[in-house]
Design brief:
Blueprint (H helix, E strand, L loop, with lengths): L1 H4 L2 H4 L11 H11 L21 H11 L14 E5 L2 E4 L4 E4 L2 H4 L8 H11 L12 H11 L8 E5 L2 H16 L4 E4 L29 E4 L33 H16 L7 E2 L29 E4 L10 E5 L1 H7 L12 H16 L2 H22 L3 E6 L4 E5 L11 H13 L2 E2 L1 E3 L5 E4 L7 H24 L1
Parallel strand pairs: 3-12, 5-6, 5-7
Antiparallel strand pairs: 1-2, 2-3, 4-9, 8-9, 10-11, 11-14, 13-14
Helix pairs in contact: 3-14, 6-11, 7-11, 8-10, 12-14, 13-14
Length: about 475
């Protein structure tokens, strides 16, 4: 035990160095950190009674009748029953703060009353008709959506999912340019369909079939793990701990990554390509989530030729969109291209209500204020704990990258990641997982989250880290 406690210094960056005879003091410090359980903020919503199958039968049905590729989170999978704004309730009535938002999809809040009311009203009027007919909601919605984008991005094609939207964007780029090759960033995710898998550069999504014909990846400008960049290179309030020679406002790493991209252009693709696809930040950035801008690409001062969007567009309703210029859109009109469900009355009404809720509830401003607070608080934990290698993000879009130690930056082992994750869940906070090595906690809650909720989430994560530290010392 004495030998293990001697390792506490590098494990706990905020702790004192071990002194002879200090073992008891160290154990008391650890135990005292658990004496105060983080108190969950109040919620004035009470879920209805769960009346479906027992948990064990649900688990059996899932194993027998759902594809095994649909994995579940946590050792004991959650059986969720109801949602309200930033909260989720399981079948036994336990409440959880949702920091993952259905894979960054619930933008304005679970069962947001404005969106729910709009959907209920439309359900009694018209569920579906072909978009070969006109119906009010599709025209009303695309006008409202297009108004939020800069010229000349004014032509909208509605689809059912992000994969489908990216698939169509690839198709349009190839038709318009009459070229075939596309370039993407390594580490990016653009969908799981056979077409888009060529642009998804995360090995765990790849299957042993051909999928990348005409798709070429290039190096991601990563100032934490990449070869260039460091403490002056991020457009963020929180910089990476890695030092660099760049000066404030002058990023030398930028030029290095551009040169690497030029090398890709000169060696890996033809002289003319169909397009270059990129996430503005390697996660979902649209609909005000970054706080500073409504669309992620606006933070870069560029106007793309094609923009795809999904996830938060429908607050969980299955819909997505491709928005482009009239000229590019016209190239698709040379032949028939039709989507049965894209832009149906229900989807358009829901999408319109989501835009209204973002504006009326001030959710972009809330994303900036609450997200900035949360980002800075997580950064304090990074400075305290050796296993937090990096904290990054903008608005309500935060990544916490876990490592063995800050010197090596090797990913934290999966078993340790999972235990911290489970501890957070047990204390009432649901977080996502991501990254090439599944080593990054993803914090992307519904944009209605409050500062009080954020403080609770940070407290819980802190407690989970202390529990991990106690386990490590005990071993």
């Amino acid at each position: 035990m004495a030998r293990a406690l001697g390792r506490l210094g590098p494990l706990w960056a905020g702790g004192r160095r071990r002194l002879p005879g200090s073992d008891t003091l160290r154990q008391q410090e650890l135990k005292s950190s658990f004496s105060m359980q983080a108190k969950m903020p109040p919620c004035d919503f009470s879920p209805g009674k769960y009346e479906s199958y027992p948990y064990e039968r649900m688990l059996k049905i899932r194993k027998q009748n759902l594809s095994p590729s649909l994995v579940t989170y946590y050792k004991k999978p959650l059986l969720l029953h109801q949602g309200h704004m930033q909260w989720l309730f399981d079948y036994e009535g336990r409440r959880y703060l949702d920091l993952f938002a259905g894979v960054v999809t619930v933008s304005v809040g679970h069962c947001h009353p404005k969106v729910t009311a709009a959907a209920q009203k439309q359900l009694g009027r018209l569920w579906h008709t072909t978009n070969l007919y006109m119906h009010p909601s599709i025209q009303e919605y695309v006008e409202k959506l297009a108004a939020l984008l800069p010229d000349p991005l004014k032509v909208v094609y509605l689809t059912n999912s992000g994969s489908e939207a990216n698939d169509l964007a690839m198709f349009m780029a190839r038709i318009y340019t009459r070229n075939f090759d596309l370039i993407c960033f390594r580490g990016g995710y653009h969908g799981g369909s056979p077409y888009t898998l060529g642009l998804t550069c995360i090995g765990s999504y790849k299957h042993g079939v051909a999928n990348a014909f005409g798709c070429q990846s290039t190096m991601l400008p990563d100032v934490f793990r990449g070869p260039w960049g460091g403490s002056h290179c991020r457009d963020s309030l929180v910089q990476t701990i890695r030092k660099c020679s760049c000066s404030q406002g002058c990023c030398e790493a930028n030029d290095q990554y551009i040169e690497q991209f030029k090398d890709t252009l000169s060696t890996c693709v033809p002289k003319a390509i169909a397009g270059f696809i990129a996430e503005p930040i390697q996660v979902q950035t649209g609909f005000g989530r970054t706080g500073s801008h409504f669309w992620g690409f606006q933070t870069h001062g560029v106007v793309p030729d094609i923009v795809t969007m999904a996830k938060g567009i429908g607050n969980g309703f299955p819909m997505a969109a491709v928005i482009t210029t009239p000229e590019i859109a016209n190239s698709l009109a040379q032949n028939l291209h039709f989507n049965t469900f894209g832009g149906n009355p229900m989807a358009c009404v829901v999408g319109s209500a989501v835009l209204d809720a973002i504006a009326e509830d001030g959710l972009q401003k809330n994303s900036k204020e609450v997200g900035t607070y949360m980002l800075l608080e997580f950064a304090k934990l990074r400075d305290k704990f050796e296993i937090i290698g990096d904290v990054r993000g903008k608005g309500l879009m935060i990544g916490i990258e876990m490592v063995k130690n800050k010197d090596s930056c090797e990913p934290l082992p999966a078993e340790e990641m999972s235990q911290i994750w489970e501890d957070c869940k047990d204390m009432g906070v649901l977080m996502g997982r991501g990254g090439i090595y599944n080593q990054t906690f993803r914090v992307k809650p519904p944009m209605c989250i409050t500062k009080q909720d954020a403080a609770f989430a940070v407290e819980v994560f802190h407690a989970a880290l202390m529990r991990h530290l106690e386990r490590t010392v005990a071993s």
